[in-house]
Amino acid sequence: MSNAHFNRGPAYGLSAEVKNKLAQKYDPQREQELRAWIEGTTGRRIGDSFMDGLKDGVILCELINKLQPGSVQKVNEPVQNWHKLENIGNFLRAITRYGVKPHDIFEANDLFENTNHTQVQSTLIALASQAKTKGNNVGLGVKYAEKQQRRFHPEKLREGRNIIGLQMGTNKFASQQGMTAYGTRRHLYDPKLGTDQPLDQATISLQMGTNKGASQAGMTAPGTKRQIFEPALGMEHCDTLTIGLQMGSNKGASQQGMTVYGLPRQVYDPKYCGGPELLGEDGLDGLYNSQ
Fold it and tell me: Which of 30, 102, 234, 238 is the 20 to 30 Å CA partner of 38?
């Protein structure tokens, strides 16, 4: 089985665009740093082509064995292609156990089929960072921060429940002292208005807006009738038959004489009727009854 069997043909369309973008992220400077580190650690020369020198997986297996002895028990001689793929697979499983995160690890075909050399480079840099974290002398990568686990006493944790977190915003030392239960009335007044402190429960709370000293004295329960009249219209204290001003002004008109809703009303026009005496006792026209 030849290597050409595993090499893919040229990509077109979207696949070509993706491949070109991945190739643009490849860093030649990082390649030189990785080459120096791998050759210095394993003692073997990679060759002119960096990725072709790693494709058989032998140098990669030796690299992880240097960092953590015994990681790969058997390194296959690159006689056939499946030997090379097995070496790459053993290397990937070994660096996973070594501590490299799964999302940083490339797939075997990314290296063997030359599909994503950028991901291969990222995996080797992540391996170098992990080796530096474990104390190895590595000239590239970053050292990962160590886990700092803190334990707090249960009493301290309970005290934290009584503190308003700053993530909810600061209250500028204001408190809810004096607040009553939700839905109950509060007696608030404004000292600037010179009013006395209210003693009843008819005062409008300042939380609902200032009423400038006005009160709800005389207010009845919701749904009951209120006797309201307008002095400007010369009206006396109106009775229950008067339409309230809350429904709009009726200009002195009333509903006096109105019958119960649904009963017939006798309405006549003086132009055509002589007067109410023409109506009979039963409310019908006398002339009509005579006929």
Answer: 102
